[in-house]
Amino acid sequence: MGPLSSGHMSEILTAALAGAPGDELAGLPMPDTYRAALVKRSETGMFDGLESSDKDPRRSLHVEDVPLPENRVTTDSDGNVHLAYKMTNNAEADRLYGELKKILNHTGMAEHHVLRKNFYMDMSIPVAGVAHQVGTCRFGTDPATSALDVNCKAHELDNLYVVDTSFFPSIGAVNPALTAIANAIRVGEHLLSKMA
Predict the structure, then answer these.
(1) Exposed site from 58, 75, 88, 105, fewest CB < 10 Å?
(2) For the whole prediction, is pTM greater than 0.70?
(3) Are 153 and 161 in contact, with CB atoms under 8 Å apart?
(4) Per-residue pLDDT of the chain (196 residues; tens, 9 = 90+)
(5) Dmax over Cα atoms in the chain, in whole Å?
(6) What torsion, rounded to 10 degrees, do the Cα atoms 39, 44, 50, 55 define?
């Protein structure tokens, strides 16, 4: 599929703003690439008093890869692990890092405190050395697009629950540890209620 026209993007935006259910949104055509920006709910106050044209989400300094169904971890019949990963939002991340370096240059800190965004990707780190991996066992309501249900139980197994960060649909641009802990507690309480 090639790039979509602005009319298609308007259709997606209109449906999302109208509160269309997930299955309706999932049926809309998506472009091969697109830009995405993330603003945490707790940071929306930074836009208070600004004109709409000045409400730029890039000011929040959060960039993450857009989740792609093609990004996945699989195994072959010999048990070898394969990673399929396509980076997204590179242009947005590059601009953000450029802005951060400009700000830090005024304090003389940029040279020693800003690493290339690919710093870890360039190093030979084994699978055991990575952190903040998410989405490899994502949750949802549809077994065709998720491995786990909303309570982090495998769709097809009654006694398998997954409560690490692999259930996240995306990283959220921040360290996921506290969210993973909160979710483990939530799932634990769910399991206790089933046992009562």
Answers:
(1) 75
(2) no
(3) yes
(4) 334 445 667 788 788 888 888 788 878 876 666 666 667 777 778 788 888 777 777 666 666 777 777 877 788 999 888 888 777 777 777 777 777 777 777 777 655 555 554 444 444 445 555 667 777 788 889 998 889 999 999 999 989 999 998 888 777 667 788 889 999 999 999 999 999 8
(5) 60
(6) 10
Q: What would the two tokens of residue 37 be? A: 């920006």
What are the φ/ψ torsions at residue 11 (nearest 5 degrees)? Answer: -65, -45
